Amino acid sequence: GGGGGSMLILPALGLILGYADPKGTHHLYMAAAMVTNFVVAVPASIRHRRSGAVRGDLLRWLVPITTAALLTGVLISNVLSGWVLVLALAGFQLAYCGHSLWLVYHKIPDFAKDQERATPGRLAAGSTVAGVIAGILGLGGGVIQVPLLQMLCKVPLRQAIATSSVVMVVTALCGALLKLGTLGTHGQDWQDAIVLAACMAPGAVMGALWGAKATHTLPLTAVRVMIVGLMLVAAGALIVRAGRSVGWW
């Protein structure tokens, strides 16, 4: 529910299937993850909407700007080698874990409605950063957009997660189509990405539905600690695999 499914999907694919082509295989995994993100985002956003936490007033800014920025990020990713993107994703995961642990340690309370500062400028800035990074790394965007909505705009956490899940329905679809359409430049077949996504989608949807429910029932600290544990394992797996693929060890 906002933790970033691709940050777990991408390491899992690398750990299970390996990197046959250090420069191109990760691009294939990114395309598969983006397709899976879209499939996951639809039921998750429906559940969040039913909870009443989705902010329609934010969507009109977040959807178009995040989508354009994410497509830009995908185009940037296409000029980078796969192993570079693997290490970049691992670095981002570690940074994300550090931020989450900082929030847990300092016991930062959630924002109240009267603290919100969701101005058009702040929303545009956050959406641009979230979209570009998500496109480069092959993420759905929520894992970046949620903390930015909190830090820049002081949107309550559950509303930020719920709203970003709806944004991801559009961004993940557009990003997936662009990545699939450009896989040939990396020596990869878009049909292989669809097959991988079809294999992952059922389990990913079940996990996302549980995560969306947990977002509205578990204490925020428990949610953050649980996500950090998963991300640390995933980052370690990425670094090990990327190093092996380029002969570092």
**What do the pLDDT scores average to?**
86
Number of strands: 0
* Integer-rounded radius of gyration: 17 Å
Strand content: under 5%
Structural class: mainly alpha
Helix content range:
over 70%
SSE order, one letter for each helix or strand: HHHHHHHHH
Our measurement of the CA-to-CA distance between the termini, rounded to an integer number of angstroms, reads: 36 Å
What summary fits the major beta sheet? none
Which term fits the overall shape? globular
Q: Count of helical segments?
A: 9
Low-confidence stretches: none
Task: Summarize the entry for a quick read.
This protein has helices at 6-17, 25-51, 56-77, 82-106, 120-137, 142-153, 157-181, 190-215, 220-245. By secondary structure, the chain is mainly alpha-helical.
Describe it for me?
This protein has helices at 6-17, 25-51, 56-77, 82-106, 120-137, 142-153, 157-181, 190-215, 220-245. It has nine helices and no strands. The longest helix has 27 residues, at 25-51. 78% of the residues lie in helices and 0% in strands. The protein is an all-alpha fold and 249 residues long.
List keywords for this structure.
single chain; 249 residues; mainly alpha; 9 helices; globular
Topology of helices and strands:
Blueprint (H helix, E strand, L loop, with lengths): L5 H12 L7 H27 L4 H22 L4 H25 L13 H18 L4 H12 L3 H25 L8 H26 L4 H26 L4
